[in-house]
Specification:
Elements: H1 19-29, E1 40-43, H2 50-53, H3 55-62, E2 65-67, H4 75-85, E3 89-92, H5 94-107, E4 116-119, H6 126-136, E5 139-145, E6 152-155, H7 167-174, E7 179-180, E8 185-189, E9 204-209, E10 231-239, E11 245-250, E12 255-257, E13 260-262, H8 264-272, E14 277-287, E15 291-300, H9 308-316, E16 327-330, H10 344-350
Length: 358
């Protein structure tokens, strides 16, 4: 049956999964994951979001206990659930853990049973990593993936070499999204499709290939991959000589200012390190001179504005001067989707003409 699409309604491309691809993904995910039959896994990721990252498959494969919080994902109920069920491994996005850590911080609580947490869905900040490690003795494993990959693409599992590193050296590695899981290939290419060197500096489009990675969207006429089977993730990334991948930004979120790139992710994480900042979001907005300039949106710990100069001074020693946001807007809360991800498009739409009209 034919139907008309209302004006302004976005048509979402759909990725469907086969049982075979789900099982292959689960088996590959177990390679190196800190999972055993004695594990108690807290999955603070919705079942509707890529089948909760595949946990309902590879958890039972090992006979691990699964703990599901339902809609109670605030700091206090999460802490109570972790304490009651003696959770040893927790999965979730950074926003969820920020709330849990804040509750623990304000109430002098320690996550005594948790040994590891796997964080994905958005970039991990240094302050979150440090608090998990230094306050709660929880090892953080950074991971990355996307719906089209079922979803896990890479994770940053601990290595023996890390045991002999300083905390600063170890943290620098843990903040990366890690190495590809078995079966997944990664490469970074320029705008012309030429593969870039794995030097940890050359930024380009992240391409992926593998046996359970999407080939074609549901009902699409054309393949979503190129002739060699590579899928463009939409991420801007770098690869280093050891095979670690670092997401610099989404291609749609990277800020192009005066012919140079500014990573909204790096700028957000720098701002999040400010002691009064509870959450930060950066978007690039049209600018009459520089094409785009960053705008920083901030939620403070108490929800009230602070001196903007305090944030700019803090950022000044951590990022290049030309990265500093032209404007800082204080909000009571940032827009989040059902999975906890920031909905940057809402802020971009609302403030799109801010710099052009000044």
């Amino acid at each position: 049956m034919d139907f008309a699409i209302p004006q302004g309604l976005q048509v979402i491309q759909k990725a469907f999964f086969s049982h075979k691809s789900n099982i292959l993904h689960a088996q590959a995910s177990l390679n190196g994951m800190p999972i055993s039959s004695d594990e108690t896994i807290l999955m603070v990721v919705p079942l509707f979001h890529v089948l909760a990252w595949g946990i309902p498959y590879y958890g039972p494969m090992y006979g691990s206990k699964l703990v599901m919080p339902g809609m109670q994902m605030e700091g206090e109920p999460l802490y109570d659930l972790i304490d009651k069920e003696k959770v040893t491994l927790a999965f979730g996005v950074p926003t969820i853990w920020m709330g849990l850590l804040a509750y623990c911080r304000d109430n002098n609580k320690i996550l005594s049973s948790v040994k590891n947490t796997i964080i994905g869905g958005a970039a991990l900040s240094l302050s979150t990593l440090q608090e998990f490690d230094e306050v709660h003795d929880v090892n953080v494993i950074h991971a990355w993936g996307m719906t089209e990959m079922s979803p896990l693409g890479s994770y940053n599992k601990p290595t023996p070499a890390m045991d002999n590193m300083s905390k600063e050296e170890k943290y620098a590695i843990q903040l990366k999204q890690g190495k590809p899981i078995y079966g997944v290939e990664l490469k970074v290419v320029d705008d012309a499709g030429i593969e870039l060197p794995k030097d940890g500096e050359s930024q380009g489009h992240l391409m992926v290939r593998g046996p359970w990675i999407l080939q074609k969207y549901f009902k699409a006429e054309k393949d979503a991959v190129d002739q060699d089977g590579w899928f463009d993730t939409g991420d801007i990334s770098v690869l280093d000589q050891d095979g670690y991948m670092t997401i610099k930004d989404r291609a749609k979120d990277v800020i192009k200012s005066g012919g140079e790139w500014i990573s909204s992710i790096d700028l957000e994480n720098a701002a999040f390190g400010h002691p009064e900042v509870a959450e930060a979001c950066v978007v690039g907005l049209p600018h009459p001179k520089w094409d785009e300039r960053p705008m920083l949106f901030v939620v403070t710990n108490d929800g009230e504005p602070i001196e903007k100069e305090s944030i700019l001074e803090f950022l000044g020693s951590r990022v290049a001067k030309w990265w500093l946001p032209d404007e800082i807007i204080f909000l009571k809360e940032l827009p989040h989707g059902a999975t906890g991800k920031l909905q940057k498009f809402e802020l971009r739409d609302e403030y799109n003409n801010y710099y052009m009209e000044k």
